[in-house]
Amino acid sequence: QVQLVESGGGVVQPGGSLRLSCAASGFTFSSYSMHWVRQAPGKGLEWVAFIRSDASNEYYSDSVKGRFTISRDNSKNTLYLQMNRLGDEDTAVYYCAKVVRYSYDAFDVWGQGTTVTVS
Amino acid sequence: EILMTQSPDTLSVSPGERATLSCRASQSITSNLAWYQQKPGQPPRLLIYAASTRAAGVPARFSGSGSGTEFTLTISSLQSEDFAVYYCQQYHNWWTFGQGTRVQI
């Protein structure tokens, strides 16, 4: 079945770095744009980053631009999020998500999330 | 940035009743709107996209309507499993979510 599994979360000190991974299965990963979305404790959803299917374009929210980098390895069916200069405001559950079809589209498959705690 | 505003923040409904959730965009997003359901400890689940298209496996009691700046999610007869938080999301220009509406008993 179509599945996304995040990993790499943990506790990190302010100013530190972390790299999240999202392993995809059950669909042709290289054909779909992907996103990272986060949710701070008790808060709503916040879009973080986007990458096109062929990695030709990346977009970031203002809150992470210059600190986070989204990337993908289509040969490994894996999406990444490199997070640098982490601050308290980055504490959240991080989800990877797949688009329905187009780059500008809804997100139809979500991972279970990985928790990042900056403390 | 397109801002998405949901109302109400909390909706108290009895099982079997109809629930109507609203979402307003700060500028026109045509029909580039999705609705998600999220239960505690779970990731969001796509319910509706393109403003009114039900995602695979979503029961027919969920329906979406609207275009431009005003959108509605209607749950025709609330079941116990429908009590959750609902988010709207625009994908017309980048991607932004509303703050959520909690549907409670």
Distance between the termini of chain A: 36 Å
Q: Please give the number of β-strands of chain B.
A: 11
- N-to-C series of helices and strands of chain A: EEEEEEEEEEE
By secondary-structure content and strand pairing, the structural class of chain B works out as: mainly beta
What's the total helix number of chain A?
Answer: 0
Rg for CA atoms of chain A: 13 Å
Structural Rg of chain B: 13 Å
**Biggest sheet features of chain B:** 7 strands, mixed
Q: Uncertain spans of chain A, ≥5 residues at pLDDT below 50?
A: none
Largest sheet of chain A: 7 strands, mixed
Draw up the topology in text:
The complex is a heterodimer of chains A (119) and B (105).
Chain A: E1 3-7, E2 10-12, E3 18-25, E4 34-39, E5 45-51, E6 58-60, E7 68-73, E8 78-83, E9 92-99, E10 107-110, E11 114-118
Parallel strand pairs in A: 2-11
Antiparallel strand pairs in A: 1-3, 3-8, 4-5, 4-9, 5-6, 7-8, 9-10, 9-11
Chain B: E1 4-7, E2 10-12, E3 19-25, E4 33-38, E5 45-49, E6 53-54, E7 62-67, E8 70-75, E9 85-90, E10 96-97, E11 101-104
Parallel strand pairs in B: 2-11
Antiparallel strand pairs in B: 1-3, 3-8, 4-5, 4-9, 5-6, 7-8, 9-10, 9-11
